[in-house]
Amino acid sequence: MTEKKDKLTIALEQGLESNKSVIKHKMFAPTTQVQMAFLAKDMGLYPYFIPNFGQIGPRTLINGKETIMLGSNNYMGLANHPEMIQTGIEALKKYGTGCTGSRFLNGTLDLHIELEDKLAKFFNKESALCFSTGMQANLGTIAGITTKDDHIVSDENNHASIIDGCRLSYGKTHVYKHDDMDDLERVLESLPAGGNHWVVTDGIFSMEGNLAQIPRIIELARHHGARVIIDDAHGIGYLGDHGEGSCGLFNVMDQVDILTGTFSKSFACIGGFSVASEEIIHHLKHHARSLIYSASMPPVMTACAIKALEIFYREDGLRKQVLINAGNFRKGVEAIGFRTVPQRIPTPIVPIIIGDAFKMLKMNKSLLAAGLYTNPVVPPAAPEALLRTSLMATHTQKDIDDALEILQRVGKKEGVLEG
Ligand code: PMP
């Protein structure tokens, strides 16, 4: 049994009395996550809250060193796009820094209304509503649309914002096994007749980059009288004819009752949204607490989100390039000898499986020292410890080749790769 556990887990089980940092902190009884974090710190492997000192482009500045950025969600490369920056500057001059209030009262700008109109058109839905983050969009939408008589059926790997939206809801939540349509059917069959039932899923699952079986989910939901909510945070921008995301790709937008999304990934801003029928959006305007009781999206971000939509619509090239980049990178990673997670369709997310959490953290640290930024992921966020990498449309082949060279060199040094 023991040899199957990674070194972090074993160290944890051997007792943390020898762990210097834990002893210093007496205020809270440390949770497992906190203990793990202390342990990683004591081992010099703590990988979180690393500051960037520049724009999130293909290369950025970390610890005074130019670093290839493979750990962002800037899929379309818009975070440092000149038109986005110019748009932000103009909005800042015109509207100032913030709205200082919620959409409900003093925080609505003409820009918010313009963005909502354009989102509704972009996704071919009647109406849209902007929230200040994607997290708030899911919290407010899921909790706001469901009542105590409703049942929510949720994929077990759904994003934390969906899970928390379900927790905030007065309805009852049922979880089905990740991506398992038989289990979804079993759960749907077990629901009582009457009441509103909702099925909710990520469109693209964030850690492994996998596409949900959206047409089958819709079919099962409809058969059992349930409505469908898709959170397409990681699909919008590069999938579909104009970047409408997973539902555009499957041509099922009209069958999705609520689409939620974020401006923090392909849009390279901050904020979130729901698009749906006018009736649903009107309901959310009066029931989504994360909208009503929180300040609205700042003007700079609202203007930039409008600009991003415009760029998605016209820039076929960026959409294609991010997938070409991801394909080239994935091929290279596999050719070197790493395992990656198989995907239903290629996405910009390329997870490199390391397996052992300790090895993965060591690898992550050495990669950063060598000038490559990746995201460390440990179970239960993924079944095995992995380095989540993601490509941008603006990475060049040289960025990709340099990243592969670093991965190979560090992989060998850390004993993850043979040779
Ligand atoms: N949904 C998914 C699937 C996400 O990955 C995220 C962010 N990681 C969110 C929602 C929340 O988005 P935001 O960053 O805008 O809060």
Question: What does it look like?
Answer:
The chain is of the alpha/beta class and 419 residues long. Helices cover 42% and strands 16% of the residues. It contains 16 helices and 14 strands. It has helices spanning 7-13, 20-24, 32-42, 82-95, 110-122, 134-145, 160-168, 181-190, 214-223, 246-249, 278-287, 289-292, 299-314, 316-336, 357-370, 397-413; strands spanning 59-62, 65-69, 127-131, 151-155, 172-176, 197-202, 226-231, 258-262, 272-276, 339-340, 349-355, 372-373, 375-377, 385-390. Strands 3-9-8-7-6-4-5 form a seven-stranded mixed β-sheet, with helices on both faces. The protein has a four-stranded antiparallel β-sheet with strand order 10-11-14-13. Helix 9 (214-223) links the parallel strand 6 and strand 7 (226-231). Helix 5 (110-122) packs parallel to helix 13. The longest helix has 21 residues, at 316-336. The two termini are 28 Å apart. The structure holds 4'-deoxy-4'-aminopyridoxal-5'-phosphate. The site of 4'-deoxy-4'-aminopyridoxal-5'-phosphate has 14 residues, from helix 6. 4'-deoxy-4'-aminopyridoxal-5'-phosphate is lined by residues 133-135, 138, 159, 161, 202, 206, 231, 233-234, 262, 264, 272.
Question: What keyword list fits this structure?
Answer:
seven-stranded mixed β-sheet, binds 4'-deoxy-4'-aminopyridoxal-5'-phosphate, four-stranded antiparallel β-sheet, globular, single chain, alpha/beta, 419 residues
